[in-house]
Design a protein that fits this description.
eight-stranded mixed sheet, three-stranded antiparallel sheet, alpha+beta, 10 helices
Length: 321
């Protein structure tokens, strides 16, 4: 049953106030970042909402609505900000409606220089516990599980041995459909959805150290085999995605170019590499962490809502009937 809009609005106001108080008490500065950009995230799995900026008397410019404020926030880090956060509206096309998805949603994204993804997990856990407690839900402590350990335990896939051939054979062994055009990243994701994400269960959990093919913006682990990426899950729902940030501009450029090549191979639209970001990255200290957490999903989890439509005043499923 849909909630009265007044109840949804008051719950969201309470949650947003709590989030802002949480970060301000820890010395973070709230920043505003653009929603329409010339160089959006190049990740091959994203489909953009694209549009054109018309300027009288000048050539029109192509752009897209952001899938995340990440690039703009990293530029601010390169300009000297140490601890920043934003509550941003973000957009992702070609996704289902309802459940835990809406094409326009709210994201809290934050960054801190001088700390890595372990400190980010600590801070994320504190935020989620505080938010849920404010609505009467008490959570147990989060588990922390490496991706390799999760897949070894659930399906016997050893990511230390991972290659396109190895993962293709694993899909065949496990009865998971695959396509001849699948990349290593595609094959990993097919296995992870069936034998990783679905096996995490209801307990609050951080899953970390993803394959390098799954983290184009993350620093490598000390052994160079994995990426310092972490995702959080509660009640089996993905809540956040963060990294110890890659700050090597040459390596970042190479990863962007690899993503562009993959987007072209898939027939997806492409945009220019963000040169300002690459220029400013070397000014960011190592380590630095960043995390993006879905406010709508946190609202759902804290209040026990069954669908994202129950925590939105204007869900897309109603706007585009």
């Amino acid at each position: 049953m849909a909630q009265p809009v007044q109840k949804i609005a008051l719950e969201r106001q309470k949650l947003n106030d709590l989030v802002r108080s949480f970060f301000r008490a820890r010395g973070y500065i709230e920043v505003e970042t653009p929603t329409f950009v010339a160089s959006p995230d190049l990740a091959p799995n994203f489909t953009y909402f694209e549009t054109t900026m018309v300027v009288p008397g000048e050539k029109s410019r192509q752009g897209a609505l952001i899938t995340s404020p990440e690039f703009s926030m990293k530029k601010l880090l390169g300009k000297g900000f140490e601890k920043i956060f934003t509550l941003a509206r973000v957009f992702r096309n070609d996704e289902e409606l309802g459940g835990t998805h809406n094409p326009e949603f709210t994201m809290i994204e934050w960054y801190q220089q001088g700390k890595d993804y372990h400190a980010m997990m600590d801070e994320t856990e504190a935020l989620v516990h505080e938010a849920c407690a404010a609505f009467g839900r008490e959570l147990p402590a989060f588990r922390r599980v490496r991706v390799r350990d999760l897949l070894l335990e659930t399906c016997g896939v050893d990511l230390d041995l991972a290659s396109t051939e190895y993962l293709a054979a694993a899909c065949d062994r496990l009865g998971i459909h695959r396509d001849a055009s699948d990349t290593e990243s595609d094959l990993f994701y097919r296995i992870f959805l069936v034998w990783g994400e679905s096996k995490i269960g209801m307990h609050p959990t951080f899953v970390y150290d993803y394959p390098l093919c799954q983290a184009a913006l993350a620093a490598k682990t000390a052994d160079g085999k994995y990426a310092q990426r972490v995702e959080s899950y509660i009640d089996g729902v993905e809540l956040s995605n963060g990294f110890t940030e890659l700050i090597d501009s040459a390596e970042q450029r190479a990863r962007f170019e690899g993503e562009l090549e993959e987007r072209r191979a898939q027939g997806k639209s492409t945009f220019p590499v963000d040169e300002d970001l690459l220029t400013l990255l070397p000014s960011v200290r190592s380590p630095t962490f960043g995390n993006a957490l879905g406010i709508d999903r946190l609202h759902m989890l804290a209040t026990g809502a069954a669908s994202i439509e129950d925590v939105l005043l204007f869900p897309a499923s109603k706007l585009f009937q």
